[in-house]
Specification:
By secondary structure, the protein is mostly helical. The protein has a domain at 53-193 and 293-423: ABC transporter involved in vitamin B12 uptake, BtuC, CATH 1.10.3470. It has helices spanning 12-15, 28-34, 37-49, 56-72, 79-104, 112-129, 134-159, 163-182, 195-201, 207-235, 242-264, 271-289, 291-301, 303-308, 313-339, 351-361, 373-393, 397-424, and strands at 187-189, 203-204, 269-270, 341-343. The strands form two sheets. A two-stranded antiparallel ribbon has the order 1-4. A two-stranded antiparallel sheet has the order 2-3. The longest helix is centred in the middle third of the chain and has 29 residues, at 207-235. The radius of gyration is 23 Å and the shape is globular. The two termini are 28 Å apart. 39% of the residues are buried.
């Protein structure tokens, strides 16, 4: 028989040390919260010992990177550099957020760099050379990315071709199509005052914009947490007490207002950062709060189990690759906006490696079933922070590649050790 709970605390029988077999497993969180700080500390130690690290490694790593570069160059944490950093992460960060969808089912997408370049070139050629309105050219470019991802998903899910091979073929094929569309012109310059160029050049200079966004984020978090609490209370499942929700909201508000303060000391809130936060938050809600998202996570946990649960494995597989292609196209437009041009090198170089590395460094598991779009943004922030710090110090790119490679290897090692520890504790 299930015991009843009030105010997030166990009843008197359990609080006084009743038989352990009377404690329902689903109420473990309530027992932790009932012990106060000691309970949270014990739970934190348990999560570490069982490999449930979450975003802890990447947050610690980011803090260490910022401290080191600030010591080496006092301009690293200046408002100008941090504002530029917030815009620089957007293009590749959006691509990384799309890759998280594919990683969640335990697969990989090697085509995102070429798809991003193809979308940017399609937009530029349609708008600049053929006079198509910008808004329509943007829609066509994004749909092209979604179609490319859908094609990869079809061959993988329906035909059974390994995702690695399909997306590798896409990497070559879409890059070739990009060069064909671009033709002999080599480079196409975008309108500096156009819609796409404005994406990364416009700033909301009014201080109320940044502070308003910070307040909105804190309020939205509190309301979402409170609604989740009421829903869990009604269902008789563990819920967060109000004081915990208040503390979490307070911490988020402090961070958000600190970021707003720094941004307002330069040029204000960047439009690119605003769009990035909205998109990443929307994708996070899609994955964690909708039936579709639960299907994606379930598929990453086990294909056969997902199939027996009635999930359309083929449809979900196709959809995650389509999502990856769509985000690659959107990210490609932001990358083109940053330099207001496209060329034969669009989507090439280390873009693919950075996007995948950002997702993995942020905590998305290569084994599937674990990862969040917010984590990918953290991973991108780590990579771009390294690049920014190296540029300020005047260190050549070769060293940056080696350091980024080391960080990526460390992230994969942590992921592997975490999974092994979870398997040992029966949680994988």
């Amino acid at each position: 028989m299930r015991r009843r709970w009030t105010s997030g605390k166990p009843d008197s029988t359990q609080a006084n040390g009743g038989p352990k077999d009377h404690v329902h497993a689903a109420n473990a969180r309530q027992l932790v919260r009932g012990q106060g700080f000691k309970g949270y500390l014990a739970e934190f130690q348990r999560r570490l010992s069982s490999g449930e690290l979450g975003s802890i490694p990447v947050v610690l790593g980011l803090g260490i990177i910022w401290i080191i570069f600030q010591i080496l160059n006092e301009n690293f944490l200046s408002p100008r550099n941090l504002s530029n950093l917030s815009v620089d992460i957007v293009g590749t960060g959006l691509i990384a957020a799309g890759i998280v969808f594919v990683l969640l089912i335990g697969e990989i997408d090697l085509s995102v760099g070429s798809v991003s370049g193809l979308a940017a070139v399609m937009f530029a050629v349609l708008n600049v050379q053929h006079g198509v309105p910008e808004w329509l050219a943007v829609i066509v470019a994004v749909l092209a990315g979604a179609a490319a991802g859908g094609i990869h998903g079809f061959f993988f899910a329906r035909i059974g071709v390994p995702a690695f091979v399909v997306t590798l073929a896409g990497l070559l094929g879409w890059n070739g199509l990009m060069l064909y569309i671009l033709g002999t012109s080599g480079t196409v310059n975008l309108d500096d005052e156009g819609l796409v160029a404005t994406l990364t050049s416009h700033y909301f200079s009014d201080v109320a914009a940044a502070y308003g966004l910070a307040a909105l984020a804190a309020a939205a978090f509190f309301l979402a947490s409170y609604h989740d609490r009421r829903r869990r209370m009604a269902a008789g499942t563990p819920f967060r007490p109000l004081h915990e929700i208040a503390v979490r909201t307070g911490v988020l508000a402090v961070i958000a207002f600190a970021i707003a303060y720094v941004l307002n000391r330069f040029q204000g809130l960047p439009l690119a950062l605003l769009i990035f936060l909205v998109v990443v938050a929307g994708l996070d809600l899609l994955l964690r709060r909708t039936p579709y998202g639960r299907k994606v996570y379930a598929l990453g946990g086990g294909v056969e189990a997902a199939r027996r649960a009635g999930i359309s494995v083929v449809w979900v597989r196709i959809s995650v690759f389509a999502a990856s292609g769509t985000m690659a196209a959107v990210g490609g437009l932001f990358l083109a906006s940053r330099i207001t041009s496209v060329s034969q090198t669009s989507g090439s170089g280390i873009l693919l490696l950075n996007a995948i590395a950002a997702a993995v460094i942020g905590g998305a598991s290569l084994f599937g079933g674990r990862g969040r779009t917010w984590s990918a943004s953290l991973g991108m922030l780590v990579i771009q922070s390294i690049a920014s710090g190296m540029a300020l110090l005047g260190i050549q790119a070769a060293v940056q590649f080696m350091i980024t490679g080391g960080v990526l290897l460390a992230a994969v090692v942590i992921d592997s050790l975490s999974r092994r520890s979870q398997e040992a504790h029966g949680r994988a």
